[in-house]
Write a structure and sequence with these properties.
Layout: E1 6-12, H1 16-27, E2 34-41, E3 56-61, H2 67-77, E4 82-85, E5 91-92, H3 96-104, E6 109-116, E7 150-153, H4 168-179, E8 182-192, H5 206-217, H6 219-224, H7 226-242, H8 246-259, H9 263-273
Parallel strand pairs: 1-2, 1-4, 2-3, 6-8
Antiparallel strand pairs: 4-7, 5-8, 6-7
Amino acid sequence: MAQPLFSIIIPTYGRAEYLAEAVDSVLAQTVEDFECLVVDDGSPEPVSLSTEDDRVRVLRREINGGPSTARNTGLAHARGRFVAFLDDDDLYLPVRLALALEGLARAPVAVCWTAFVGDVLEDDQAAGRRLEGDVAATILDGHVPAVGATALEREGTPGFDESLDFLEDVEWWRQLAGTHTVATVPRVGHLYRRHDGVRHRWVPTARPASNVAYLTQRAEYFAAHPRAAAFRWKRCGLLALEAGQRSLAREAFWRSLRAAPSARTAWHLVRSSLPPRPGGAGPSQATAVKT
């Protein structure tokens, strides 16, 4: 078989209704030279797709390994010149791969922008982070691009850290930016879905704990990159606040301020010190962030 231009990897676990829409959004691409690898990560009911398009293949893992393991399985079977990713509950706009080619003409890694499903987009424009060239020193100073908004040459693509249930995208980007330059195409090609459906391994208190663990594991990196440390501690504080862990939130905001003073972070620190509002429980799964 001829090598496809793109390999699109979709890890999935028990979300058949969303998966079908995700695959349909891939099949609607204006760039048609691709293979779509659906990695069934040990779903209770094995994935069955109605499409007969031979560009779509299902790879079944018998034991659930998590998103990193599923993506790595897809990478091991990918044949395309370039690789892209899509979560099973997210969507591509039809121009997603066309935008990737535009960026890949300038750098080995291309990113587009992400919006939420249902957002009204004016001429496909939205605000987003612009990454250009060598971003190794600044990549963790803010939100990393969504994995689903990223495309890159398959050769040399780093694997995902299978020891991380969360922040695997952050660590992947940290490694990726250390060896690859980046080009941003400032248009939306990837859509993130907010929903109340199942989020496997999703536990509100796990996210702040994973941020603390990651900051500890990569202490040397964050010591050398105080703006990145400040951002990650602030994220930890916000997630802890949403999970009702106010003591951890205060500690995280203090650490963020010590790394890099910020009026916004100081405001969050004050907010975390106030009594919680009645009924102010943590976030629903519909509003939980992926990173």
